[in-house]
């Protein structure tokens, strides 16, 4: 089984959680699109004179701050990603949100290499390949091919 190491992502990279300037309103979308977020990872929000709200999809797209799922205002918030699917965050300041200070991340299940299937019950060995059955399959495929060509020509 492949080992999985949880990662903490600093939201926004070096700039942290802040209101984007006029020409960078998509900065958080761009930042998130370059990351892969897995269950067990966390998001670190660093900010001053602001806060972070976890909201639903409606709250994210409409900057509706009236029913947040969670409110964080400790200037250094770490949110653990605990289930797959989208997770939405916005600034508590409605103008900041409308100017692009909002983040949606898609959380995925960590990839684990599949375990080989082992049947512990003894049983008969599989039959060796027999070419006799393959002839009828070839005949059926040839018939299907000829049928498709004939239908195509008549259309």
TrEMBL record:
InterPro entries: Cupredoxin, ENL_dom, Phytocyanin-like, Phytocyanin_dom. One of its GO terms (cellular component) is plasma membrane. Signal peptide: none annotated. The keyword Lipoprotein applies. Belongs to the early nodulin-like (ENODL) family. This is Phytocyanin domain-containing protein. It comes from Handroanthus impetiginosus. It is a lipid-anchor; GPI-anchor.
